[in-house]
TrEMBL record:
It comes from Zea mays. It holds the Pfam family GSH_synth_ATP. GO terms for molecular function: ATP binding; glutathione synthase activity. InterPro entries: Glutathione_synthase, Glutathione_synthase_N_euk. This is Glutathione synthetase, chloroplastic.
Length: 253
């Protein structure tokens, strides 16, 4: 799920008028006080009951036939409309092997309360990441730390920059910029916060906050177009077989 880009000076919040309510009086509170209120409200948001795990089953032969046709049509649609990624198994020649990007064949229900909760939390996480990114000494120290001490135990962990080559290169570039006191007045953060619904606790759980989500946003809008294009031609047969839109059929290659 994409989240708006927010600096510690300004919060840019994208809201759809048809989905999100108008701000209440708490929205005009001082920034620090409002952050506390928003965080408390978001973390204590109550979601409607009934979030259940997706049902699974082999289905009847007729259902499997329809599903197979939908999968085949979806794969062709992806190739025609550019919903593809490089196939790493196709060899070393760039651009030769392509395969459809991972997608869900049918849309899944997502409760509005959880969507609103994620929107409320996004600016808070964005500001946290922004402030951490501006503390160069903390970043260098945190990603180079090897020993974690506690009163009752000592845990040895590998140094991040030694086990992650990508992070190592970023830290080297960052260290060079710090040594020459190179700073920029303009900061842009592209953050993607990933969530999943937990059926046991009926809550929204954050999986990760990604600060380099630049690969798939352009493909995201194509997925909804794919689902509309695939769903309507098969609507009659889907309805007849009592398919549920809450089921997610993942394409696995």
């Amino acid at each position: 799920m994409s989240s708006p880009c927010v600096s510690h000076h300004q919060q840019v919040r994208l809201r759809a008028a048809s989905r999100l309510p108008a701000p209440d009086t708490a929205s005009f509170a001082p920034p620090a006080l409002r952050r506390l209120r928003v965080a408390h409200a978001a973390m204590s948001a109550k979601a409607p009951l009934g979030v259940a795990p997706a049902e699974e089953g082999p289905g009847t032969p007729g259902q499997q036939t329809v599903l197979g046709q939908m999968v085949e049509d979806a794969a062709v649609w992806c190739a025609v409309h550019g919903l593809v990624v490089t196939n790493q198994r196709s060899g070393t020649v760039p651009g030769v092997g392509l395969v459809h990007a991972p997608f869900s064949l049918l849309p899944a229900r997502f409760p509005a309360s959880f969507f609103n909760q994620a929107c409320e939390l996004a600016p808070i996480f964005n500001e946290l990441v922004d402030r951490v990114s501006l503390d160069g000494e903390f970043l260098q120290a945190a990603l180079s730390r090897q020993v974690l001490n506690s009163i009752h135990w000592i845990l040895l962990v590998p140094i991040t920059k030694q086990v992650d080559e990508f992070t190592l290169r970023l830290l080297e570039i960052h260290d060079k910029m710090m040594s020459i006191n190179k700073k920029e007045d303009i900061h842009l953060g592209l953050h993607r916060s990933d969530y999943m619904l937990d059926s046991e606790t009926n809550s929204l759980l954050q999986i990760e906050l990604n600060t380099i989500p630049s690969s798939f946003p352009g493909l995201g809008s194509l997925v909804s177009e794919l689902q509309r294009s695939i769903y309507y031609p098969f609507y009659g047969r889907i309805f007849m077989f009592s398919f549920k839109l809450s089921l997610i059929f993942s394409i696995v290659v």
